[in-house]
Amino acid sequence: MTRPLRVLHVISSMSRLRGGPSVSMQNILRALRGRGIAADVATTDDHGDTSRLDVPRDRFVEVEGQRVRYFPRQSLKYAFSAPLLPWLLRNVRQYQLVHTHGLFSFAPLAAAWCARAAGIPYIMRPAGVLDTWGMRNKSRLVKATSVRLVEGPLLRSAAAVHFTSPLEQARAADLSLPMRPIVLPTGVELSGIAGDAPEEIEGLDLEGERVVLYLARIHPIKCVDVLLRAFAGIRARSKLRLVIAGDGDPALVASLKRLAADLGLGDRARWVGFVDGRRKRWLLANASMFVLPSASENFGISVVEAMSAGVPVVVTQGCGLADFVTQWRTGIVTDGTVESLQAALETLLRDEEGARAMGEAGRCAVQRELSLEAFGARLEGLYRSVLAGETASAAASLPALKS
User: Fold this and answer.
1) What is the pLDDT of residues 304-330, one digit of tens each?
2) Can 6-187+371-397 and 191-369 be said to share one CATH topology?
3) What is the rounded distance in angstroms from the CA atom of residue 228 to the CA atom of residue 255?
4) CA 73 to chain centre
C-alpha cells in the first residue's frame, strides 16, 4: 500500500487575472485530488494590481477540493505578506514536501527558505521567470543580483526544479545555475473546455465570421502588436474577425488599440477584455484559429485549451509548446516576425480542410498527453521519487512525442 502524501504548495496569487501560473495551480490541485493526494496551498489575496480577492484570511477554504489559505498582500511589488512568514515557520514541518511556484516574489521564496531550514524537501517551479527574455528585459540588474544572493542558493538546494517545457529548461540553463531540473508539462482540465452551455459575449456577433482568436494576458512579451500588423496585412478581411481576449496594463492596451486604428482595422478587431469559463468556451467554439505570438512563453496553457477544443494553433518558436505543435501537427510554428505570422494565418484561411485536420490532431494529442490524469500520475511519481531520495529524471516525465 502506497504511503499517503501531504504536500504544501505556495504561490503569490491564485487569481486567474495573473495568467498561466495561477491557472496551472488550480489544475495542479485538480490533478492531485484525482490521485487522492492532500494538497494545501498558502497564497495571498492578490487579485490584480488594484484589487483583492474577497476571501477569508484567517482559515483554510476549499478550492478545487483542496485547502487554500489566503494571506493579506501588503505590497504590490514582490506581493509581500508579513503574516505569511510566521505561519510558514510554525507549520512547514506538518508537510512531507513543499512545492513552490514562481520566483522574484515573497511567498514562494519564503516557503523555500523555511523548508530548507526545517529539512523538508522542496521543489521549485520558476514559472517562466528564468527565461532569457525575462532576465534581459525586466529589471535586469535587480534580477541578476537577486539570483546570485537569493534564488540561486535556494534553487541549488531544491530537490528538483520543475520546468514545464524543454525550452523553459534550456533557457534557464543559460544562467549556469546549479540545480536538479525536471521537465513536467502541466495538465489541463479538458472537461471544462468541452463543457456544455457556453455563454455568448454581449455585443459580439460572430455568426458567419472566420475568427482569429488571441486569448491571453496583454503584455509586451506577448507581441500583440505583431499580431495586429500581420492581421492588417491580410487583404480579404470582409468576413474575418480578430478577437483579442485579455487584460493588461491600461496604457499598453490603449497604445495597441491606437495601433489597430492606425492600421485601419476598425471593427474587424474586437477587444473583449478578460474572459473565463463559459464565455471562454464560447470564443473557442467560434474560433477558426488560435494565435499566441509571444516572444517567450515557458508553456502556454491557452494553447493547450485551444487544442483541446479542436482549434488549430499558431505559435512562435519562443513558445514552450512549439515542438509539441510541430510533432503532433496541431498548427503552425512561426519565427515571430510579422511576415511569417501573416503567412501562417493565410495558410489556415486558405486550407480549411487542413486547418480542421490540425484542430482534430490537437484535440487527440491533448487528450493523450496533457490531460489532468496523465499529469497527475507524473506529478505523483515526481513527489514519491523525491521522498525516496531518488534523483528525478527529466526525460522520464516528458510526454511521448510521435515517432
Assistant:
1) 999 999 999 999 999 989 999 999 999
2) yes
3) 12
4) 22
Residues 303 and 290: their CA atoms lie apart, in Å, by: 8
The cell for 315 is 505559435
Please tell me the distance from the alpha carbon of residue 310 to that of residue 38, in angstroms, as a whole number: 33
Cβ–Cβ < 8 Å for 363, 333: no
Cα Rg of the chain (Å, integer)? 21
Please give the backbone phi and psi of residue 17, each rounded to the nearest 5 degrees, phi first: -65, -20
Cell 517551479: give the residue.
125
Architecture of 191-369 per CATH? Answer: 3-Layer(aba) Sandwich (3.40)
pLDDT-based confidence at 203, cuts 50/70/90? confident
CB 39 within 8 A of CB 29: yes
Alpha-carbon distances of 88 from 118, 158, 160, 371, 386, rounded to whole Å: 10, 17, 20, 32, 21
Strands 97-101 and 160-163: unpaired
State the angle between helix axes of 106-118 and 84-91 in degrees (0 to 180), rounded to the nearest 10.
30
Segments making up each domain of the chain, as ranges: 6-187+371-397, 191-369
The class that CATH gives domain 6-187+371-397 is alpha beta
